[in-house]
Amino acid sequence: HRWLVTGLWAEQAVGIVGGEPKCCKSFLALELACAVASGSPCLRRFSVPQPGRVLLYAAEDAAHVVRRRLEGICAAAGCDLTALDVQVITAPTLRLDLATDRAALERTVAELRPRLLILGPFVRLHRIDENAAGEVAPLLAYLRELNRRYALAVLLVHHARKSAAGMRAGQALRGSSEFHAWGDSNLYLRRAGDTLSLTIEHRAAPSAPSIMLELKAHGEALALEIAQPPSPTPPTSTSVDERITAALQDATRPLTIKQLRSHCRVRNATLYERLTSLINAGQVLRTADGYRLAIRA
User: Fold this and answer.
1) Which CATH class is domain 240-293?
2) What is the CATH superfamily name and number for domain 3-226?
């Protein structure tokens, strides 16, 4: 399979970065922008086979906010922001439901020839009814036409419904089901406590397992990172002698070999060997009824 970002976004794919508000969708979109423009691995894991220009329109964020976020991502990725080929559309508005704005966007794409076009969030790019498939479909079709005409990938940031935790990621997108059906590569973010769960979905390639992310500080800036799983607590190691002693302490009467083996879960040979050692050390007594702890003066 050919990739723009290996495992995350197919080459020349259209798709959605989706999630509820405050789930770091814009951070993830900018992470992809930085990776494609610089050639550095996205999230420090997913390689970029062929870097290229990125064209970005961030409808909700001022230019200085976008720059600060890119600075944080570049700090995490170890690349130079000034060397990135990220072209930012600075128009105050961009309406995909207006013919004049669609024509202006196409002229910009034709002139700059980006490998990746990032737009969003979708709610700020129109005045249509997102629940009406007949109104949503033409706008998505326009983006698909740009994708095919100029051989570029298109990433659309879009909100998910609130309180949609019980739904599959794609079905949780706000509005018409056209959004889910449209995407070739889709990335969905969901909050899980202090971390974020990233679900990856592709139309024509296997999807990787979900990944846990967290927003981490890099100096005064922030960037998404793959969360490191907590170190597993090593199981408490108890010796056979300790298990024998504990079993005899808890018993109200002497225990037989069969009973001790059930408690200690060891082979007979090992159990007899350790019992002999404990008897010789004066810690255990053997009686006609079985084994018990020695009573110390």
Assistant:
1) mainly alpha
2) P-loop containing nucleotide triphosphate hydrolases (3.40.50.300)
